[in-house]
Amino acid sequence: MRTKDLSYWLFLAPVLLALTVVIIIPLLIGVYYSFTDWNGIKVGSFVGFENYIDSLKDKEFLDSLWFTTKFSIVSVILTNVIGLSLALIVTTKIKSSKFLRTIFFMPNLIGGLILGFIWQFIFIKVFAGIGDLVGIESLKGWLSTTETGFWGLVILMSWQMSGYIMIIYIAYLEGLPGELLEASEIDGAGPFQRLRYIIFPLVAPAFTVSMFLTLSNSFKLYDQNLSLTAGGPYNSTQMVAMEIFKTAFGERDMAYAQAKAVVFFVIVAVISLTQVYINKKREVEM
Q: Is the Cα dihedral 23, 29, 33, 39 positive or negative?
């Protein structure tokens, strides 16, 4: 038993070491710096909660936080709906299911910056061309307003993440007992009844995992935001990660940016853990 315990910890040791060195220690150092006037080179004096108080009064930071929250809510819902829909399609008895899985997953392999530039071309050039062709003025000037910039980011995020989330749902859908589905079909249950009363409860753990992943990815989005809208117009589509980066490296206010990052970390952690708790509770009830 002692040998087993020792081997268990030896097996975990590299992961725990990497986690400590790469995440935990930098996090603690960052929290310490947030209480100082650190300028990126040296630590001057201890300023207490001054940086945190200023961050909660910073309109640009609060606006970016509100924009990120709205974006995350819409993206999480849309990505999971599309991902589950794609999973239901490719798990049916169609000959091209493996090919479709590959096609749907491929956008996730494209880097965030490249993806943003691709969609920037589509929204600006292609949409404008279609608008000229069919005479729809609203298709012109995409990404030039806050509303279209918002939906541009949502479309980009959903297109990139849906295939990845699809894989998670596929893993659970393919593990469903076929006898139960066949029995429900014999008993006269329609497709929507099977989906509501059998499939949804059995794939409940997949909702927990996929919602956590989409939520965390939506909140920390940076590359796509930078290459698609660069926060414009007038920082109205600037997300929190970009605003913190600009504070740190644009304004050279490292300690203040670190305080914003800690506030952001706490908010995302609370939301993510709450979401996991609620979904886990629903799994038990189902």
A: negative
- 184: exposed, middle or buried (Cβ count in 10 Å: 0-12, 13-18, 19+): middle
Q: How far is CA 70 from its chain centroid?
A: 12
Give 10-residue mean pLDDT values along the chain (286 residues).
68 90 92 89 84 93 94 93 91 84 89 89 89 82 88 93 92 79 72 77 83 88 91 90 92 91 92 82 62
Distance CA 5, CA 25 (A): 26
193: CB partners within 8 A, 6+ apart: 184
Return d(Cα 246, Cα 180) in angstroms, integer.
54
Which token pair is 50?
């001054």
Q: Name the residue among 86, 11, 100, 62 with its Cα closest to residue 263.
A: 62
- What does residue 81 show for φ and ψ, rounded to 5 degrees? -65, -45
Domains and CATH numbers, the chain: 37-285 (1.10.3720.10)
The alpha-carbon radius of gyration of the chain (Å, integer) is: 23
Q: Letter for the amino acid at 225?
A: N
Cβ neighbours of residue 108 under 8 Å, at least 6 residues apart? 160, 161, 163, 164
CA angle 23, 25, 27 (to 5 degrees): 65
